[in-house]
Amino acid sequence: MCLLCFSVVLFECILSGIMSVKGKKVLHMDRNSYYGAESASITPLEDLYKRFSLPGKPPESMGRGRDWSVDLIPKFLMANGRKAIWHSRYNTECLFSSRLYPGQLVRMLLITQVTRYLDFKVIEGSFVYKKGAIYKVPVTETEALASSLMGIFEKRRFRNFLIFVANYDLNDPKTMEGVDPNKSTMRDLYKKFSLGQDVMDFTGHALALYRTDDYLDQPCINTINRIKLYSESLARYGKSPYLYPLYGLGELPQGFARLSAIYGGTYMLNKPIEEIVMENGKVVGVKSEGEIARCKQLICDPSYIMDRVSKVGQVVRIICVMSHPIKNTGDVNSCQIIIPQIQVNRKHDIYVCMISSAHNVAAQGKYVAIASSVVETNDPEKELKPALDLLEPIEQKFVSISDQYAPTDMGKDSQIFISRTYDATTHFETTCDDIKDIYERAMGTEFDFAEMERTKNDIFGDAGDQ
After folding, report:
1. Tally of CB atoms within 10 A around 48
2. For this UniProt entry, which residues form the secretion signal (predicted)?
């Protein structure tokens, strides 16, 4: 085998699919008996209780256990677009755009045609937290003027800012209004429109989806593009810029695993890893159950090779089961809420995502909300209190605290390429940045979306889809 991947988590599944399309021979091994590893969707509900060591069985009020499929890592897909593409398999209009710059994971799904194996639903709302209350994220001129998030004068200034961002075109100097995309910082741009701290907070964290305020002193073009992505996605779907796969995120690694299999990739679940075999400081194989699988390169998550990673923090996540939607959201059956760090005197934002029976992940009338953030104190659960207060009453909580790791070995000599641990965000953009980084380190070339594209014969010649 030329390439060997550990852990059928989304990182490795996407990379194995991409590498297979490029003609690499791929063997994918996982110590678990299911796809997804830490990005799995746990079903039935009884298994979730066991995973979190809760005594007894779920109460009858939770409905049938097999109706539940609960994500361990909450994430939404950032979409994009004004033009839909026709889904030939189902004779329906696909939810995705064919424009050049959608969210990165959506683009990967589109080009590889993994969308053929999945169905998606639009998330119904996107909200931001301010002084104990939540507000719809205003992203259009009309919403800016109507939003109670800002005072009357700030509404007009923010409206002008949105118009500027929407019209900004690198090929048309007239739209730039003296703003240099590479020299003017985002702080400069906010100052140009006299926007206050509260507006800066929800713009940077709820629209541009930055995790810290470091972006303020970076070139403004990056933030402009992020806001454009958000607003164009919202314009396409009307409710929010986010998508979510029916039956849970565990469907995503399975889709990319199938792509790899179509191109000759081999998958082995429930395979314990006994030893990583090295020769002269370079990986040459992996030993499992007494046998050695030979490889030239190895891709894995940090849990398989702890002596080549360092701990960089912790993430706290609390899965909450409820019998009601979140208050003050208009009773939507799905949404994201971002609590900017400054609103709760923290260094990191708090994220909340909610899905429901409408997404085939919970029993009828039930809702699943997951709150997450970077751990800052010795009482992680208490850190999420602002989010949990929004969710009350809560029927059942599942609390997890996960260590975050980053590779110390970049793989140049060892040819071992290690992913980073999932962060606290509720979108996949940072995950895709890591996927591209691993690809570039392993392949020695820049990540090119076009090279992932399947040919028509590949797509329609898949016997399993006839």
Report:
1. 22
2. 1-23
Residues 449 and 300 in one domain: yes
Question: Which burial class, exposed, middle or buried, applies to 77 when counting CB atoms under 10 A from its CB (0-12, 13-18, 19+)?
Answer: buried
Alpha-carbon distances, residue 148 vs 16, 135, 358 (angstroms) = 47, 8, 29
Give the range of the structural domain holding residue 216, as residue numbers without chain letter: 138-238
8 and 153 part of one domain: no
Q: Is 389 left (phi over 0), alpha (psi -120 to 50) or beta?
A: alpha
- On the 0-12 / 13-18 / 19+ scale of CB atoms within 10 A, 301 is buried
42 pairs with which residues across the strands? 70
- At residue 270, φ and ψ (nearest 5 deg) are 60, 40
133 token code pair:
């209350």
Is the domain of 187 the same as that of 62? no
The answer to whether residues 369 and 333 belong to one domain is yes
pLDDT in tens, 31-79: 887 766 777 899 999 999 999 999 989 999 999 999 999 999 989 988 7
> What 3-state DSSP class applies to 174?
helix
Strands (DSSP E) contained in 11-167 are 26-29, 41-42, 70-71, 77-78, 84-87, 92-97, 120-122, 126-130, 133-136
Q: Do 410 and 306 fall into the same domain?
A: yes
Q: How far apart are CA 330 and CA 328, in angstroms?
A: 6
Residues of the chain whose pLDDT is less than 70? 1-9, 35-36, 80-103, 451-466
Number of domains into which the chain is organized:
3
131 inside domain: no
